[in-house]
Amino acid sequence: MDTAEILKKVRQIEIQTNKLVSETFAGEYLSAFKGQGIEFAEVREYNPGDDIRAIDWNVTARTGVPYIKKYNEERELTLIIACDVSASLKFGSTDKLKQEAAAELTALFAFSALKNSDKVGLMLFSDQIELFVPPKKGKKHILRLIREVVAFEPKSRGTDIGLCLETLSKVVKRQGILILISDFLAPVDAFSKPFKLAAKKFDLIPVVLKDRLEEKAPRLNVCLEVTDPETGEEDVISLASGELDGELAAYRARHGAELRALFNPYKIESITVDTAQSPADPVISYFKRRAKKLRK
Question: How many CB atoms lie within 10 A of CB 169?
Answer without folding.
Answer: 16
